[in-house]
Amino acid sequence: MKVKITLNGKLLNKHIPNDMMLLDFVRKYGALSVKRGCDTSNCGLCTVWVEGTPVLSCSYPAARADGRSVTTLEGVRQEAEAFGRFLAAQGAEQCGFCSPGFIMTVLAMRRELKDPTEEQIARYLAGNLCRCSGYTGQLRAIQAWLREGQQAGEVQA
């Protein structure tokens, strides 16, 4: 099967197996930040954006992304690095294994939700598992990061 997928701004016109998952496609073409964790859509490690919406690429057929734009951490590198530094400065750093999927979800949430409550943040992040924390530090850091962005006058999509 032939697909045209724009990966991080680059149009890829490729032949793929019919059963290829988006996770395998993006990794094959250089997006190594996307990780395989559970293969059951339960951990969030494989989170990417399709047309700006977070999806779990381990259970998303690559053929379904035909004609669409897919963004990985590599495609939002500056924003992701800025948020990663902010997490570390807040004392909410992690081992890093779940960070790419977690960061992709947080960046999508920032674009989608205006001034989310703690409950909304927790619900949005529910599919991202971190095996080394209790999420308290991350939640605190996310709330501070969102406040900082609003105070700076950022426009959210």
UniProtKB/TrEMBL annotation:
Domain of life: Bacteria
The entry's keywords: 2Fe-2S, Iron, Iron-sulfur, Metal-binding
Span of domain 2Fe-2S ferredoxin-type: 1-76
MF GO annotations: 2 iron, 2 sulfur cluster binding; metal ion binding; oxidoreductase activity
A Pfam family that the UniProt record links to this protein: Fer2
PANTHER family from the UniProt entry: OXIDOREDUCTASE WITH IRON-SULFUR SUBUNIT (PTHR44379), XANTHINE DEHYDROGENASE IRON-SULFUR-BINDING SUBUNIT XDHC-RELATED (PTHR44379:SF8)
Protein known as: 2Fe-2S iron-sulfur cluster binding domain-containing protein
Species of origin: Candidatus Anaerotruncus excrementipullorum
